[in-house]
Amino acid sequence: MTTNARRRGSIWSAAVRTPLGVCSVVLLAIVVGLALFGPVLWGDRASAIDTDAIGQGPSGAHLFGTDALGRDILVRVLVATRLSMALAVLATAIGVGTGIVLGVLPSVLPRWAARLVVSAVNIAVAFPGLLLALFFAVIFGVGTHGAVLAIAFAMAPSFARLVQTLAASVMGRDFVAAARVAGVGRVRLLTRHLLPNIGEPLVVNATVGAGASLLAFAGLSFLGIGVQAPEYDWGRLLREGLDGIYLNPAAALAPGLAVVLAGLALNMVGETVASVVGVRTPWSRLRTPPAHEPRVDAPLVPAADAVLVVDNLRVSFPRPSGWTTPVRGVSFSVRSGEAVGVVGESGSGKSLTALAVSRLVEAPGVVTADRLEFAGTPLLTSSDRAVRGLLGTSLAMVFQDPMTSFNPTRRVGRQLAEVSEQHHGLSRSKAFARAVDRLTAVRVPAAARRARQYPHEFSGGMRQRAMIGMGLMGRPKLIVADEPTTALDVTVQRQVLRLLAKTRAEEGAAILLISHDIAVVAGTCERMLVMYAGRVVEDLPTAALPGAARHPYTRALLATTVDLETDRDSPLTVIPGRPPEPDQVPEGCAFADRCRFATDRCREEDPVLEELDRTHRVACWHPAADPTPEPRETVTAGGAA
């Protein structure tokens, strides 16, 4: 057995040991066992007519009584399990297969044909499923075969819509476009690139859909257009029991209870499957917290007026092989009214640090810290209610892409007003008036009119201003700006940075600015944190840059910065190599493989973030003492030099 097979088996084993998994397995085992062995054990007894026991109520001999021919109702319900479940599964299989075909056809057909298929599916989805089933039952005729096809084709449109939605999200991705450019045929594109990427949600929905098919089949048989005599399923038995419900209510209770329990079993199995296929990490790893590792740096001593204190912050995520820690021992503080920038290459842990500070790291991620305080409140130990009120009013988060941060279905003004409605108790009209005032404060033109528009009607820079305005709905003590100028042109970038500086001056708010652009941070902030491989490797004032930089990585970043004085005839400067993956951080200094000063000690022992003076910390065994630029690899028009 391969490692992947064993790993997947352990996930299933852990899933079925949960309360949901145990209940689903037990119920499904009972249903399957009755379907397999019920007719064998009680088939003759279920058909035996007893004229001496016609229409009897519940008794010791017949727990749910007898029907109009004296046959035991409980035994007939048990025997009917096979036919009821078989028909439901068959209808589901046909419906799912038809839905998959209808769902993927628009991805491979010519555009005009794809539109016809999509339109037909949309029209079919508009009709209730039971109405479609009745319609198809009339077309295919009364009886078992007609009912199977009716239910299958009734569930196919909704399943096709699901497949179309999932397929559309996959077909727009770059790897599909690359496959098309490479000349991959439509059928191969469908089987190799499309279906494998949407298979998991389809399996889950098919499992849950089997329960709906069971209920629909019982409904058709109850109406008399499903299973016909002498055969019988739960729906037909329910109809027969309903005729004498006033004399023997248990006659209708038994088949109804069977439908409910079997449907519940199928739905619970679907939920269990969903919990497995949606998790790539063994459940045992999720339940085991990451191992506590001793801190590398000395304990942080924050200033007395610090609004944010982060000491030995670690953010971990589970993997099949254990826990990985992209943020490992970050320590810093931000004083009231101070602007601190965080720089580093992609994957260095900048944004993840900001999310942890804002309590936005979701499970299964785990955030730990020796101390994580905002405005004097410990974020990791305080109640959710207390922290929610604090973060909702005193911390503003400006995300990298406000288009994905705003709800596209709600007007901008109403989204801003929601902050005051929830946290300040303002009425709807007063909250909206404040939203207009905040949009005016961040220089959104015609704020009253713009507040009634949707996010897609704003330009990129205007959306970013509106996002800052949302943060100003309260009285923020800290503004966390995560790449707020990415993808903006230089003019709008300058406006956004000026707006942040103006907000800081007027509101007295501290700013934690995260950026790839070291020049932006140097021109906006008083202090700069340089992160590499999940750690702060240097903490220094920006006023003395570039000469104050002591860590080789900081100096390399400064060397790659392009400004108006850069020689345009010289090749671009780059840092050789690439940062390590979070789960492959080497022993010792993570930058050692890219550093020309690295020694054996650097590769064996992780340097401590130590103070050089009151405002400067650096984690390096060989910090540079002179401002001489470091030689770096260069890139020319023809490639790397």
Q: Percent of residues in helical segments?
A: 40-55%
CATH third-level topology of the largest domain: MetI-like fold
Give a count of the beta strands, DSSP E runs of length 2 or more.
16
End-to-end distance, in Å?
Answer: 48 Å
Radius of gyration: 33 Å
Give me the side-by-side strand order of the main sheet: 7-8-9-3-10-11-14-13
Report the CATH C-level class of the largest domain: Mainly Alpha
Q: How many separate domains? A: 3
Low-confidence stretches: 279-284, 634-641
Number of helical stretches of at least 4 residues: 22
Overall 3D form: elongated
Largest sheet: 8 strands, mixed
Structural class: alpha+beta
Detailed description of the structure:
It is a single chain. This protein is an alpha+beta fold and 641 residues long. It has three domains: 3-283, MetI-like (MetI-like fold, Orthogonal Bundle); 306-527, 3-Layer(aba) Sandwich (Rossmann fold); 534-640, no CATH class. It contains 22 helices and 16 strands. It has helices at residues 3-15, 19-47, 73-108, 111-125, 129-140, 144-171, 174-181, 186-223, 234-243, 250-277, 283-287, 350-357, 384-394, 402-405, 412-423, 428-441, 447-450, 460-471, 490-507, 518-524, 552-559, 600-604; strands at residues 306-319, 322-335, 339-343, 366-368, 371-374, 377-378, 395-398, 478-482, 510-514, 527-532, 535-541, 572-573, 610-613, 616-618, 634-636, 639-640. The strands form three sheets. It has an eight-stranded mixed β-sheet, sandwiched between helices. Strands 1, 2, 4, 5 and 6 form a five-stranded antiparallel β-sheet that branches. A hairpin with a 2-residue loop joins strand 5 and strand 6. It is elongated and about 105 Å long.
